[in-house]
Specification:
Shape: globular
Number of helices: 7
Helix content: 25-40%
Radius of gyration: 17 Å
Mean pLDDT: 92
Strand content: 25-35%
Number of strands: 12
């Protein structure tokens, strides 16, 4: 019987899956490797699909009974999203956050996971393969960047906005490299991983006028 994966084991899994399915296609995508989803410009690649399948299979095997929900699976069947709010145990998977950047050859993309218990995010992982940076958070236990605990910062100079993709923006906010970001789209795989990282670093995410506003520790104190 498989044992539940500890935090380091999940990060190792993410790195291994990305190394196999995502990184080899960075800068090497063929025309047929990229397609649009329901909205024009909302891209998906073979790397997204393969990485999500591999991560979902491994998480499901290690955590029997857990709901494992990936962005691409929900894109194909939006009704799957209904089960997330009532699941006792769940994982959400964003196989390639910032797919447009990935397709364009930008290093600003990431793979993200979040684990939920009864609707609360309890652990999260963000891996930026081209930057070689890993961010991990555990509810009530802190946030880490490359194994070093992120300490809250209140430097008033770090109040400029960021607007790349969630897998890049949230780490920037958490470590104090930017002050805020605003989002209209509110998909759980986009915001749950970074939201926990940011909260554990001393920032927060709030809703204002239908927009999600992510605030760094410095900006959060001023808001």
């Amino acid at each position: 019987m498989n044992r539940p994966m500890d935090t380091d084991a999940v990060l190792d899994l993410v790195r291994e899956v990305v190394a196999e399915h995502v990184t080899p296609r960075f800068g090497a995508l063929e025309r047929d490797d990229v397609s649009s989803k329901r909205r024009p410009g909302d891209l998906v690649t073979v790397a997204d699909r393969e990485a999500e399948a591999a991560l979902s299979a491994a998480l499901g095997a290690a955590h029997p009974g857990a709901l494992v929900m990936g962005e691409e699976a929900v894109s194909s069947d939006p009704t799957l999203l209904r089960g997330l709010s009532t699941a006792e145990h769940a994982f959400v998977v964003d196989p390639v956050d910032g797919t447009r950047h990935f397709v364009a050859g930008s290093p600003d993309h990431a793979t993200m996971l979040a684990e939920l218990r009864h609707g609360r995010t309890v652990r999260s992982w963000i891996w930026q393969p081209q930057h070689g940076r890993a961010y991990v958070a555990e509810h009530g236990a802190g946030a880490w960047a490359d194994g070093v605990r992120i300490e809250p910062t209140t430097d008033p100079r770090t109040l400029r906005p960021t607007g790349t993709c969630c897998g890049v923006d949230y780490p920037r906010l958490a470590v104090g490299q930017a002050g805020w970001a605003a989002y209209v789209k509110k998909k759980p795989w986009d915001h749950l991983p970074g939201g926990l990282l940011l909260a554990e670093a001393g920032g927060r995410v709030v809703r204002r006028a239908g927009v999600l506003l992510a605030l760094s520790p410095s900006a959060s104190r001023r808001a």
